[in-house]
Amino acid sequence: MIDYAKTYFDENGRLIAETYDDVYFSIEGGLAETHYVFIEGNDLKQNIGQHTPFTIIETGFGTGLNFMATWDWLTQQNITTPLHFISVEKHPLTEYVFAQSLAEYPSIKPYQQHILKHYSKLTSQTINTVQLTPQITLTLLIGDVAEVLKQSPQKANAWYLDGFSPSKNPQMWQQSLFDNMAKLSHPHATFATFTAAGMVRKGLAQAGFTVEKIKGFGHKRHMTKGILA
Ligand SMILES: C[S@@+](CC[C@H](N)C(=O)[O-])C[C@H]1O[C@@H](n2cnc3c(N)ncnc32)[C@H](O)[C@@H]1O
Asked: Quick check: CB of 89 below 6 Å from ligand 1?
């Protein structure tokens, strides 16, 4: 049975996960943060043309903002490389909340409408794949990352290591995740994450990634990026 997310919108319109007491994305510049942390953090502009198809694996699909922002970026940049985006989600949003979740980003709306046509299929089993366009394939792996990531149908060229903050959701940020990432990576796969928590940096280094702490988005001091050594 699907364990849907328990959520509410707070007085500032931010979508909050009750279970983790954390936001899905920051309302001040969520879209810009996705670009900075994940698209630039993975040097996608340089790397995406080097592998066909290019596979991104994300931890935590949530509202799909990172996926849709990446799809939109490819469109804006006229990049035609086929993309397989694979995302792991333990608690999918209900279709109703998913549809309401990105109201502040009208530029993303057409992508969300497209996904909504397939949303029930995308969240119905453990592994769900939909060819959204000839260029874009989306796979959602429904379940705990510790259990379902291993079932990924593809290895990653880039990792979007998202999720609630390690202090609020420590079960997600385990050494087994970093070790599985290394096993499921193509040579020279990159990763980027909004957090610079010490245990995340250490864990990724232990799994075999070079780890670089760089300036974070907006007021955040640091984030982390790297490459499989
Ligand atoms: C910060 S939100 C992700 C935001 C998302 N990338 C977006 O663009 O909206 C973190 C997500 O991780 C999911 N999550 C939390 N613990 C998890 C776990 N152990 N395994 C898989 N997903 C998990 C949550 O349900 C939530 O959707």
From this structure: yes
Question: Ligand 1 mean position to 95 CA, how many Å?
Answer: 16
Tokens of 174: 């385990």
Question: Which atom of ligand 1 is closest in space to residue 171's alpha carbon?
Answer: 19
Provide DSSP, 198-217: HHHHHHHHHHTEEEEEEE-S
| Rounded Cα distance, 19 and 10, in Å | 14
User: Considering only CA atoms, which residue is closest to atom 23 of ligand 1?
Assistant: 90
33 lines ligand 1 (CB under 6 A): no
pLDDT score recorded for residue 83: 98
Q: What domains are there in the chain, each with its CATH number?
A: 7-228 (3.40.50.150)
Is the pTM higher than 0.85? yes
23: which strand partners? 16
In short, whether 30's Cβ falls inside 6 Å of ligand 1 is: no
Angle among Cα 104, 108, 114 to the nearest 5 degrees reads: 130
More confident residue, 27 or 129: 129
Using one digit for the tens of pLDDT, what is the confidence trace for 32-43? 999 999 999 999
